[in-house]
Amino acid sequence: MRALSHLSLTDWLALLVFVSCWAGYTWFSEHSRWSCEGLIGHLHAYRRDWAERMLERDIRVTDSTLIGNLMGSVSFYANTTIYIIAGLVAALGAADKLMSFSADLALGGTGSRELLEIKLMLVLASFVYGYFKFTWALRQFNLLSILIGAAPLGRSDDPQVERYARRVAGAHNLAGDDFNRGIRAYYFGLAASGWLLSPLVLGFLSVSILIVLYRRDYRSATLDVLRREP
Known about the structure:
230 residues, mainly alpha, 8 helices, 78% helix, elongated
């Protein structure tokens, strides 16, 4: 707790902007009434369609292959995050060298060793959060593959088949949402690294990433392609 006394008012304000941007966008894209209008909401609907089409197919090799491709992407990010975390832990052990390096930067040094460690811990916490989300998403995709293997054969007008389609789509949505949270942790982890230069850089990058995420989820050409006709 004594290390927190090294934070200036500008540092606290930059941290407030960082947390507000991350938590605020998470709520906006997942729980607000506008969430269904973005990429996440549209993908939920397409996953339901996928589940219904899958239950109508007798041979589901294509579905298994697609789930395997999704699991490969999640596994890649999980493995990469481990290396990033290891590098950040090593950086904590070389804080003195980082201080001497940052002292020559135009934006100024990182301050005391305690302050530098706090800044590195913020970056580390962002990627640790992302690692937990990626690994949990990977486990959910494994459970999804089991649901596909146990899926009955039938059409969506059968109440039992419809309930199973909702179950498959729900598991798929949960896995996909956790993968999105892990990707979001990467974005804001990069913003957190800006604090190593200056609290102003941290605040600027946090707002910039908020804008980038909003544009990609709600104003991108990809969304125009996925958007269903009224």
